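pipeline: protein-struct stage 2 | run 1193 | Phototropic-responsive NPH3 family protein
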Amino acid sequence: MQKLALPLETITFSGELQQLVPESWFDDGYILDMDHFVETISCIKSKGFRPDLIGSFITKFAYKFLPGLSGSGDERTIANLEVSPESVTTSWMKKRVFVETLVAILPPEKESIPCNFLLRLLPIANMVGVDPLYRDGLEKRVSWHLDQASLDELMIPSFSHTCTTLLDVELVLRLVTRFVHMNEAARSGAALVKVARLVDWYLAEAATDSNLTLSQFVALATALPSHVRAADDALYRAIDTYLKAHPGMSKQERKSICKLVDSKKLSPEASLHAAQNERVPIRAIIQVLLSEQSKLNKHIDLGGSFRGTRIPNPQPLEPLDACLSMNEMNAQQMEIKRLKEDVLRLQSQCMAMEGQIERLLEKKKGLINWKKLVNFVKS
């Protein structure tokens, strides 16, 4: 296979980068000589092209020749350059060198490479076993854009022999930790909220794996500050999924995982579900009920203060305005009444559950005493 004989110094750069790069540059000869490709990138950089255009050139090169990035099914890939059985190891080594070279020549600017490309490149880098230095650099770049990631892109399988989970939870934890510890000027509060939502969705998927340990779940759930979650409904769903997939958890373990949820941040629907959930410890249910009671009291106080407000020299209301005010007050009273009924129902269910637990404990205590008596008689 003959490589293009095109001296780099004779290349003239004009127009967009997509126009200046001939399709013939992407033939197999250039893949076999990564040094020449690196020289080409260096030449383009020296001409002062924008980092995003350089990144576009690199991603086009990678999509064409690296399997798993584009899913186009193109047979002219680096994995198929050698087809003989004895070349499997050689092909694997070439793939690793290819990925390491890509990571090394990426422009340093944050917005030069799209997030979805980096997230597709990351699992391939882990699969071929790139040097930790390159892997660390790639993870750092991904963490810059973590708020732009989707759940599907974050579902990266684990390629480590020491990892027992299907998903690479430790990798996601490293990405989230890096993102949180970024300079505050480099990330916004809105980005933190997006990542928190993404983490809760990811936890709900990862929680179905029976090999996911409690410490892994807790570490990822607490990797973000608690104040960035406006609501804890998604986190509660993830915890409930984990409790379903791990029925053998001890009472103390269930208590510790349920402490992750702030009951004050649960919606009425999530609170009702938690209060009726047999997998949730009694103490956590009581906390949910107390939070709902507190919310109800606030509603009542607001309603009372609204009715007790006196406006000096009030102007007479028009009939339509008076009608609207009465409608609003009636709607508020109906909402308060509904909340009261919900709280009373939840309290009744909680008391019934406590009674059942007490009866079970009494039966267990009686059984233990009976066994002691039998052993005493036998002795």
